[in-house]
Amino acid sequence: MKIISYTLMFSVLILLITSRVEGNNNEVEEEESCKETYGFLPCTSTALGNSFLIVVYGYMMFSGATYLSNGCELLLEILGPGVIGGSLLPVIASLPEGIIILATGLNGSIATAQEHLSIGVGLLAGSAVMTLTLIWGTCVLIGKCDLDCYRARDETDTKGFNLVDSGVATDIWTSYAARIMTLSIIPLFIVQLQKHLHSSSGRNLAVLIALIMSILMLISYCLYQIFQPWVQARRLDYVKHKRVMTGFLKHLKQHALGRLCNHDGSPNMDVLAKVYEAIDQDGDGALSEGELKAFVIGMHLEGMSVGTDDIVHKVLQEFDTERRDGKIDFDEFKNGISKLLSGFVKRDRAPHESTDNIKYIDAVDEEAEKEHFLLGDFWEEGEKIENTKLTTIKAILLLVAGAIITAAIAHPLIDVVENFSDATTIPSFFISFLVLPLIINSGGAFQVIYFASKKKRRSASLAFCELYAEVTKNNLVSLSTFLALVYVRGLTWDFSSEVLIIFLVCFIMGNLASFRTIFPLWTAILAYALYPFSLVIVYVLNNFLGWQ
Questions:
Q1: Distance from CA of residue 344 to its chain's centroid?
Q2: pLDDT in tens, 505-529
Q3: Are 167 and 151 contacting, i.e. CB atoms less than 8 angstroms apart?
Q4: Which domains does the chain carry?
């Protein structure tokens, strides 16, 4: 990596010297063709020279983005998903795109800013579209495993490129992340309404409403990031408790000589008394922890690692509701069984005789197992930081270095893209759409694809969650910056077609991922097809339907 950095710096130095020599030989002509950024950075009017500069400045911007990302990760390991980790760090991680968009709108006069703004919207659209199409599809292709019902077999890939029976599976929290991403396009929908407004005040009002909505949704997203770990832990704990209760009832039914409840739903006292006496080994009229442990020791919960002590604790928590003495008397036992069975009746509106059937209890237990599986009980605690002070200093230095690099390189990168557009007559939007997201987000893309390549549901869930979070932050942070520039500087909004493709791609992929956890290979083909489709949409709307 250092060799590459030195090579690029040396190349910039050579180009700088060359530019100076050419400027001395033909100073008047060079002044008319390009302008040096900051008065000393090299510039050129040729397509090849600007291509080289895009690579150089792009690599510097990539380095700055990498520093910011690494700094955020270190701070997140130290602080955890609290107020700072959940609210501030996601915003900091989106700084590169935001700084570039900010530089496009603050660069020079209003006319110049209006001209450069297409670069910012190209980056905004390109980042979202590339993430949800090319990177998303690659994760499915690289991480594919054999699919079986509602799950994928980890590290098992024997079905090749079967479009239906091969793919990836994620947990339910990944679907929730996709739903949040879909909601983040609401400001895009609002700002699109200004196209149908004919007065300038009406268009400004639409931009302002979209800006306010975007900021409010960003705040809401940060709050969600703060409380989401707590919500996830509570939901998982509830499902674990539910699985233990259904498993306990199933285990109890297997040891009962008869029905647990009568046809009218009342407890079958004779059967319950016999089961209770069988568990109550010392005959003192109360089930102790030791007696419960002896009874549940053969109880097995598929796909759930829970000890006997945990099962006993949850059973006591459910049944010992009157005296709270750590024991279960017969009345508590009877009421607890009746409560569990009546819960099935209320939930499924099933007759009492059905809920007492072992097949029905098996079905309920299987449903609880599926719910537990989809929640993904596989999150591991990260490694503890040994030297917290030193790591904090390193994280802050990385953040500062990343912020300085991205802020310094944003302006010259925009100028180079504009110069390349002039030299090739390619609209600057398409250049920023195709090139800038590839350069800036390549580090994160490789990391996400690497996670998916492990061919495990846990890794796939992490990868796709990161993709949806990235698009959500892009839609809210970058769009808020973009709308603020348009409103404050009084710029003209003529990017309806560009914003439309963000809306369409996020809507299609968001709805696809919001209500399913299995993604066969055919979904990757759909994602790949959306990338060229989005470019065609912009070209047709701008050049044939007069949207711009």
A1: 35
A2: 999 999 999 988 899 999 999 999 9
A3: no
A4: 34-236+381-543 (1.20.1420.30), 237-375 (1.10.238.10)
